[in-house]
């Protein structure tokens, strides 16, 4: 009986602490453009510093991890451009590609930063910064809704 209870507890605990990352983030810009063409959806390019940017981490929790965004994400192509400080998070090639996108599309190097664009890489609109004190993602939801509605 103790073994069964232990098993049930472990199963329950792992379900609580496991992250359901049902979002399909692409990491290659050319792939994102092709999917955008094929599916006739705008690209949502997200610049993040996954291991050092506190507002990025909070935006992930408050916005990207919500059911509302998961529903919205079905209407966009997600492209994550991570610029981590730790060298073991990305391959050297991926980091080089991400830094090229950073220098072209996020010259101010603001994090977090979201850019909506069409399949040709033409910027439609941008949304940047996230207040760590307010933690209110409502303008991000509005931003994505506006992009979806006008594409």
Query: Strand tally, please?
Result: 5
* CATH level-two architecture: 3-Layer(aba) Sandwich
Count of domains:
1
The CATH class label is: Alpha Beta
With strands numbered from the N-terminus, the spatial order across the biggest sheet is 1-3-2-4-5
For the biggest sheet, the summary is: 5 strands, mixed
- Span of the ends, CA to CA: 58 Å
Using only C-alpha atoms, the radius of gyration works out to: 17 Å
Provide a short characterization of the protein structure.
With 151 residues, the protein is α/β, with parallel strands linked by helices. Helices cover 47% and strands 17% of the residues. The chain has one domain: Glutaredoxin (3-Layer(aba) Sandwich), CATH 3.40.30.
